[in-house]
Amino acid sequence: MSPRKTALAAGLISAALALASCSSATSTKSFDGAPGADTKAVGFITVGPKDDFGYNQAVFGGADAVRKAFPGLEVLTAENVPEDDTAATTMEQMIDKGAKLIFATSYGHLDAAEKVAKEHPDVVVVQQGNTITGEIPKNSGTYFGTVYEPMYLAGIAAGAATKTGKLGYVYAFPIPQTIANIDAFERGAQTVRPDVQTITVSTSSWCDPGKQQAAADSLLSQGVDVMTQHQDCTATVIQAAEKAGAMTVGYHADASSLAPKGWLTGAVWDWGPLYTDIVKTVKDGKFVGSKYNANFRVGYKTGTNPFVMAGYGPSVTDETKAKIDAARAWLATPEGSPFAGPVNDQNGEVKIPAGQVPDYAKNDEMDFFVQGVVGTLSK
Description:
By secondary structure, the chain is α/β, with parallel strands linked by helices. It is built from 11 helices and 15 strands. It has helices at about 5-30, 55-70, 85-95, 110-120, 150-160, 175-190, 210-220, 235-245, 270-285, 320-330, 360-365, and strands at about 40-45, 75-80, 100-105, 125-130, 140-145, 165-170, 195-200, 225-230, 245-250, 265-270, 295-300, 305-310, 345, 350, 375. Strands 12-10-9-8-6-7-15 form a 7-stranded mixed sheet, sandwiched between helices. Strands 2-1-3-4-5-11 form a 6-stranded parallel sheet, sandwiched between helices. Strands 13-14 form a two-stranded antiparallel ribbon. β8 (about 225-230), α8 and β9 (about 245-250) form a beta-alpha-beta unit.
């Protein structure tokens, strides 16, 4: 065969293979049924351990609720799954075991969740805490509670309790979710003590006990007498505050057992009802077009927030509890918000004018510290 004919034949073969590959990819990535409806298992991946007294422990509690509500479903769990390609691999392994509904529960799991959802249109992949930009596929969505509302209420308890007027906040990364929490906490505290400050320290990690201890020590050395945090694992900060005789506000999970003297209250997850409703929606074949096939957020204004207040510690007075109850009722009204204007940033610039009440979507974009917060946001 001449070189020209050989090249032509090779070209035809290459084109045919490419066409076949394209056809195969299309056939495996198209699905006209109800994604996830025939699932035999449900998968949960977490970025940390199940016993962290925090974020991941709360996820496992929700997974247990699913296990009890759907005894015919196998519940698959994987802890300590990094926010990288490992997350996609772990979800693929769950799919191989029959899971057609997967909860990817860390903020940084979104990229992997979107990748897996694209590769498996018959599988529902929902992600916890982040948001999908652009068009949302029929088999995916995100969900979360308005975490800053209970933190606003917890701020009232902290503002009433502090004697130094200095609150401490250990946080992981300067993402909108953590910024909104810090700002809401400070503004809640200001309602009972206008001159209060919230001093912040970033650990640049969701769970690093060494960095958390250093952050707590730094805050305590500055006169902080009430400490809180936005970390996945919470024990280190809570125990550091208790040891120093400071008070603490918990986060993610009830850790009052770690601080019998200093515990004030906390903002904690009750994932069971939301998780089970998502599973029911998927199994009923009604996920597509549902409220979960979106960037779903629920708060005091819109429904039952999965982020709730923990019980009170012994030092919280009835007067403070009454103020928190009144604030909770106010948050459920159209006028109520931790960020009802006017809201100024650290430099005094008006960010939310008087009379304005930002919606949940707007609050999910928060990128500034309010007046009263001490610390610098990295750009």
